[in-house]
Amino acid sequence: RQVDHVIERSTDDGSGLPAMEVRINVSRQQVEKVFGLEEYWCQCVAWSSSGTTKSQKAYIRIAYLRKNFEQEPLAKEVSLEQGIVLPCRPPEGIPPAEVEWLRNEDLVDPSLDPNVYITREHSLVVRQARLADTANYTCVAKNIVARRRSASAAVIVYVDGSWSPWSKWSACGLDCTHWRSRECSDPAPRNGGEECRGADLDTRNCTSDLCVHTASGPEDVALYVGLIAVAVCLLLLLLVLILVYCRKKEGLDSDVADSSILTSGFQPVSIKPSKADNPHLLTIQPDLSTTTTTCQGSLCPRQDGPSPKFQLANGHLLSPLGGGRHTLHHSSPTSEAEDFVSRLSTQNYFRSLPRGTSNMTYGTFNFLGGRLMIPNTGISLLIPPDAIPRGKIYEIYLTLHKPEDVRLPLAGCQTLLSPIVSCGPPGVLLTRPVILAMDHCGEPCPESWSLRLKKQSCEGSWEDVLHLGEEAPSHLYYCQLEAGACYVFTEQLGRFALVGEALSVAATKRLKLLLFAPVACTSLEYNIRVYCLHDTHDALKEVVQLEKQLGGQLIQEPRVLHFKDSYHNLRLSIHDVPSSLWKSKLLVSYQEIPFYHIWNGTQQYLHCTFTLERVSPSTSDLACKVWVWQVEGDGQSFNINFNITKDTRFAELLALESEGGVPALVGPSAFKIPFLIRQKIITSLDPPCSRGADWQTLAQKLHLDSHLSFFASKPSPTAMILNLWEARHFPNGNLSQLAAAVAGLGQPDAGLFTVSEAEC
């Protein structure tokens, strides 16, 4: 199509020949605004007295590649030698995207494997599934503009078990029977395949001719007496070893509660207070900034000598304790804790626990349930009643990991929105979902974010176990997402993290900005440290602990910054410094923290330091301003202005000790709702009611009606609602409001549920 639009025309240069020059230096948005096209052509036209001369047409197309795949591969489970088809429709783009497939991050090459080929529609086809084809498959689309990855699809190739041939019949025994056996090994079941059906042992009566009866002689009696004597000696030796072990174990039993804790409803247990924090356990990374920054390096002074850290070996933290004893532990970096953990680690109880213990708590639980909390982090694990099978006792741990200790691969525009949290041991049997609560720093908006819950597998790879907004009611995982926290229902313990992928530039993360400085200036220099953290309790806790060691104090109220996915760095500058008293040592107008260091979410202690040099010996307070801003795509900027005065009243805002509480609670003491009243509510509201006085109405009153399908998929929907209420409102929940909501359902016996705080 022809568009008559002259962009720029030069004048005659006096040579008698007309001159024409066209310059095109526009963006795709400008081209669409001017021409209304994504594909267009340009033509140079020259006019003279002899006529009009036109050049050849130059065709121009705008190259692009959209973010979202039109169709992504889905996880599958197939039997051995069955065909596999993984569809993939790449994003729209110009030029059209080329497609390639990855198997466990390795390129799939059909020329090297005749069992695999890729169709014209970009689907990956495996002609006959093999055990080696069990892997995570990813569809990759790319052109000259960008490279996009689909969500990984887990393909599991399973093998059903089959019986081996029967063995020969055994000799006929004294009871006139003989037997034969077979094994489920031809082939053995693998990757979740079905077990063999039928018996593995066949017994029949012998014929009378084959049945031989013999009388026991003196030799047989002597043999039996000898065997009994050996058994008695072994038993005595075992008793002696047990007594010796118990003597050595006396030092470990200092925090073992009385067995009445199992019979009296798990009354509250006293916990030993942890000792003072060890200053060797915290280090800080250097600032990550561009060439315009002069941000400080490590803030911690050098420590000589070995650090009192201890490693926890891999294994399961699962120990059914004998003798009716019930132990309750809380981590603290003391010699007793190190001795306890080292003795447990030799028995392979722990699995992938961190180096230190300041961010770990653990306790022992049975069917009555309980709660684990890591103080001042917003992280907790609720174990509802009957989540642990009756007759079982599990020792469960809850751990907060530092991002640099755990490798979480992030692809494309993905960003870490929550702390990385482990609860375990993995593989224990749970009959009800537990609820893992943790903070996040995303601004939840379905149009701007694609949120996924990731879980680390036993092999160490991370998998997407839940796509928020697309949950299936029968899924093993479910998530209640709120403004600053998420509550994960899971029946499988493990390591979790919430990851977001920006769908537009409107996607924002909440960052918290904190300003710290020394309590007193004892030298010629004064350092002001500006931290840029995720707006979560755990990130704030780490920085506060670090600044306590450095002798710093908060000098301004923390501010929240909404950081956009605009690919622009965060800039910081200092202004209005009294030049007669202080001089800034910054050689440039501002400092920067790179966009990807912030957006990735795996960098700790991101900060910049402004160093001021004293000019005058005056002792007057320092007053200045710090500007923090991010430039948007249209050239505008939004900033936060700090007015700095040396006022210690802001330190009261970080009184983290107020959260308090026992890090491990067991039995009824871990719940706000009394156990008997909870059972009455469940019994009354679980059955459907024609008048609407059932669990669905309770969910609506508690603003949880968006999760009705998930609640309905569980054996007791009311129990799920009450568990979520406990996770969201402990320990400061208003029990009277819940009682009023239950009493307002119109049940004939609703008065039974009306309780007061005093009655609880």
Automatic annotation (TrEMBL):
It is a single-pass type I membrane protein. Its main location: membrane. Keywords: Apoptosis, Developmental protein, Disulfide bond, Glycoprotein, Immunoglobulin domain, Membrane, Receptor, Signal, Transmembrane, Transmembrane helix. One of its GO terms (biological process) is anterior/posterior axon guidance. Residues 359-502 form the ZU5 domain. Belongs to the unc-5 family. This is Netrin receptor UNC5. It comes from Neovison vison.
